[in-house]
Amino acid sequence: MPVEYFGNSLRAWTTALIIAAAVFLTLLGIRALLVSRIGALAKRTDSQVDDAFLALIGNTRWYFMAAIAIAVARRDVLLPATLTGPLDAALQLLGLLQVGVWFSALVAFYTKRHLTQRGASADRLGIAAVRAMAVAARVAAWAVLVLVALQFVFDKNITALITVGGVGGIALALAVQNILGDVLAAFAIVFDKPFDVGDSIGVDTLSGTVEQIGLKTTRIRSLNGEQVIIANSDLLKSRIRNFSRQTQRRVVFTLGVTYDTAPSVAERIPAMIREIIEGQKDVRFDRCHFAAYAESWLSFEAVYTVLTADYTRYMDLQQAIYLDILRRFAAEGIQFAFPSRTIYTAASTGSGSSLRPPQPTAR
């Protein structure tokens, strides 16, 4: 009479063991082969897909492959109900555990890649915020896996647990809503990148250089030298001007000449200014026109574009243009106007009431 264990002969158990060992060793070999081939491919390409796939394969654990091998081999043996339930639960738990490991590996891969891409510009926000988001993603993933295990593996009703967790989460969010708003704004800054550390920005009436972006606040060194600390949520509610991403600068200026300027001379002024502006490098002339009759001068408006974002270069060019205009006007005898007003007074003489000719008085 053949010997049986749990209702299966020794031969059946031996066959199942051989099948399990063969499947396990095959999976180990496939993992090693894929790691070798995909690793070589990843070194030759810049794609993130093969790198991410390599991270998943490399983090495929032996116990997951052993669970697959056992699941395949057990089909050739009959197990009592007392063993089938615990074995199925154990295999399912190992599968969920592997899913959690895969998710953690993906989070670690993209976290490392993001910080590497930031390179030397990675500030404390880039490090702290990304790592905080990675931890939060892992915690959320493992929490979901635990709930899935309770519901489907251990057959427990998790409705009450989810309800309690939801109410507690709402209460906590209300208690720390200001801090939470700043933290979420920091995450938005990390991924949307309206500015980065070292950028010159303008926020409302404040202009300065970003020194640090934290999880709650951003520190800006103003042009006056003091450090201004602004909450991240307030910062994103404002209109931000990023001067560091400016590629060119449009300049508009006006000048006035006196009303006694001859029409023929006034007609030549736009051409003079155009010649002066086009004589500079890194500048594109747009237009110059006799724009208006002002209170005490003839107003001319000129527009040009500086083809660089360098503020010092912009000021050097503006200074050179203004000095050339000053020299040219002096050579042509053109007078710059200054604010003045002419007042006419009337005075009575004798007993009668007669008006004198208007007497101009300039001041």
Structure description:
The chain is of the alpha+beta class and 363 residues long. The protein has 3 domains: 4-175; 194-244, SH3 type barrels; 249-332, Alpha-Beta Plaits. Helix content is 56%, strand content 18%. The protein is built from 10 helices and 12 strands. The chain has helices spanning 10-44, 48-58, 62-73, 81-118, 124-153, 159-175, 177-192, 232-237, 263-278, 311-332; strands spanning 4-5, 8-9, 200-203, 206-213, 217-222, 227-231, 240-242, 249-257, 283-293, 298-306, 342-345, 359-362. The strands form 4 sheets. A 5-stranded antiparallel sheet has the order 6-5-4-3-7. Strand 3 and strand 4 form a beta hairpin. The longest helix has 38 residues, at 81-118.
Question: In short, what is this structure?
Answer:
This protein is of the alpha+beta class. The chain is built from 10 helices and 12 strands.
For the structure shown, list the relevant keywords:
363 residues; alpha+beta; SH3 type barrels; Alpha-Beta Plaits; 3-stranded antiparallel β-sheet; 10 helices; 56% helix; elongated
